[in-house]
Design a protein that fits this description.
InterPro entries: GlpE_sulfurtransferase (IPR050229), Rhodanese-like_dom (IPR001763), Rhodanese-like_dom_sf (IPR036873). The chain has 5 helices and 13 strands. By secondary structure, it is of the alpha/beta class.
């Protein structure tokens, strides 16, 4: 009976993987054998593959976030559905933009860092116009990672992620060498909303740094790193 149950689970995982790869609307946005910790930008239907495993963004289950420019009693949340396939298992799970933003399975952590854009009152967007920023990390890969706060001096002095190095975004290109980071080393930049971190990431990638993660802000980092 135990053998039959295991065989059935493996068969289901194989069939799901086959269906995902044959679906015409899906897009394989990256394939790599090296994971450790990596950022992915995904829309519905996108698939990323690593180490013989795959992650697919299935659908937006619900989006109750407060529309941009509108005052709301609650900020609401967006709930997103994913499936993670390995050669021996299939794990379906949801992530949302509030408290349930991180999911762990075996030795992998999936962290939803942001989901954009915000809804706009009077405008209906199709699901593929939204983008989820995910960090997928192997267990232990973020323990000693360098974290850079790219906000102003005042913002940093008021509050910052524990252990973060401070380099304002307009100085990042000139001062990144102070940290002696290898060009292929994983490190994280963050700010207040992710916008300045995104600019820092673009500048650093133009300089040849290949694995810069946009950690968005303090709250998202604490959830990911907890």
């Amino acid at each position: 009976m135990k053998f039959l149950k295991t065989f059935t689970l493996v068969s289901i995982a194989y069939l799901l993987a086959s269906c995902a790869s044959m679906s015409g609307g899906d897009e394989e946005i990256e394939s790599t054998q090296r994971l450790e910790a990596k950022e992915f930008m995904m829309s519905t239907g996108d698939i990323v593959r690593f180490k013989n495993n795959s992650l697919e963004f299935l659908k937006i289950v619900n989006d109750s976030r407060c529309p941009k420019g509108v005052q709301c009693v609650s900020e609401g949340s967006a709930i997103l559905s994913f499936i993670y396939l390995t050669p021996n298992s299939a794990e379906s799970f949801t992530l949302d933009t509030s408290d349930n933003s991180v999911h762990s399975f075996e030795n992998i952590r999936f962290g939803l860092m942001s989901f954009e854009p915000l809804p706009s009152e009077g405008t209906i967007l199709s699901p593929d116009e939204f983008t989820a920023r995910l960090v997928v990390a192997e267990e232990g890969s973020l323990e000693d990672v360098t974290i850079i706060d790219v906000r102003t001096d005042g913002e940093y002095n008021n509050s910052h992620y524990s252990g973060a190095v401070h380099i304002p975004v307009d100085e990042i290109g000139k001062r990144i060498g102070e940290l002696n980071l290898a060009k292929d080393e994983t490190f994280i930049v963050y700010c207040r909303s992710g916008n300045r971190a995104g600019k820092a990431k673009e500048e650093l990638e133009a300089m040849g740094y290949t694995n810069v993660i946009n950690g968005v802000n303090e709250d998202s980092l604490y959830k990911l790193m907890d």
